[in-house]
C-alpha cells in the first residue's frame, strides 16, 4: 500500500473551510470514526461551533458530532493529520494553500472537495494543489458526486466518488468516510471526476436561467443532456474516461444540481433568468456559486483544446457579457442543425 492506512478509527482529518460542504464533510468523517479538526477563518464561527456543537450560519439545526472540533488555528488543525480536506471556494484555493503548505504533514493525503477551474490558469483543483504544495500525484485526490450539503448533513442517503490515480489511497479514503448514509465509490479517473463537478455547475446555471424564464422540464432535460455531451467532449479531449461522465461524478451530480432548489448555482441562474443583474444576484448570497466564475475558465479550457461547448458559452454571455437571457435562448436554438 503506497499511502498511510486511513481505514477505521484512529484516522486524524483536518478539514480546511467551515462553509456548507466543509462542515458537512467534517461531520461525515467524524461519523465514519475519524477524529476531525475543522478550520474556520473567523474566530466567532469557530467559537460558536465549539460552544453550540452546530454551525448555525451554514447548517442551522444540524448537530455536529463530538469527535469534531473547530479552530481558527491552521497549525493546530493540521497537526498530525493523515488526511487534509480542502473545502474553500476554488478561486481562493491558491492563496489559502500558500499559507497552509508549510504546515502540511509530509505524507498526508490531500483531498479536494472543490468543484471549479482556476481563472487565468485553467487548472483543475488537484493541479493547483500539486503545483502549490509540490505533492506527488499519488497523494492528491478529489471527491465529487451528487452531494448537496444540506441533504447529507441531514443524513439522507447519497453516494459519491473518490478519485485518485493511486487506487490504494482512494480505497483508504473510501474507508475513512463510509457511513450508513454516505456511500463513496472509488475511481482512478481524476480528470473526469473533477471536470464533471466543475462543468455541472455551469450547466446548473443554464438550467436555473431557463427556470427563471418560465421554461419547464423539456428545456431542463435538453440542457442536462446536451450539457453532459459537452462535458464529455471536453473531458475526453483532456484525457478523461468517457464512462466517468455516465457515473455519479458526471450524470449523477448534473441531475441533482440542475434539479434541486438547494443548489446555489441553479438558484443563482434562476434569479438571472428572472431578470436580475449579476451584481444584484451576487448581493443576495454569501455562499459560493462556483459556476459563475468557472464558466469563464471552462470556456477558456475548451477553446484551448478546440472543443465546442455551446451551453457554457451561452452562460458566459449571460453572466459576463450582459447578453439578455432571451437573446441567449435565440442564439442557442438557431445554431446549425446537426446529428446527435
Ligand atoms: N455546498 C455543497 O452542497 C457542496 C457540495 C459539493 C461540493 N461543493 C464544493 O465545495 C467547495 C466549497 O463549497 P461550500 O459549499 O463549502 O462553500 P461555502 O461558500 O459554503 O463556504 C466556503 C468556505 O470557505 C471559506 N473561505 C476561505 N477562504 C475564502 C475566501 N478567500 N473567500 C471566500 N471564502 C473563503 C469561507 O469562510 C467558508 O467557510 C466549492 O467548490 C463547492 O462547489 C459544495
Ligand atoms: O449548491 P451547488 O450548486 O454548489 O451544488 C452543490 C453540490 O455540488 C451538488 O453536488
Automatic annotation (TrEMBL):
Q: What is this protein called?
A: Glycerol-3-phosphate dehydrogenase [NAD(P)+]
Q: Name one GO molecular function term.
A: NAD binding
Instruction: Give the family per the record.
Output: Belongs to the NAD-dependent glycerol-3-phosphate dehydrogenase family.
The organism's taxonomy opens as: Bacteria, Bacillati, Actinomycetota, Actinomycetes, Geodermatophilales
What compartments host this protein?
Answer: Cytoplasm
What's the encoding gene here?
gpsA
Describe which pathway this protein belongs to, using the record's wording. Membrane lipid metabolism; glycerophospholipid metabolism
Q: Name one Pfam family in it.
A: NAD_Gly3P_dh_C
Which GO biological-process labels does this protein carry? Answer: carbohydrate metabolic process; glycerol-3-phosphate biosynthetic process; glycerol-3-phosphate catabolic process; glycerophospholipid metabolic process; phospholipid biosynthetic process
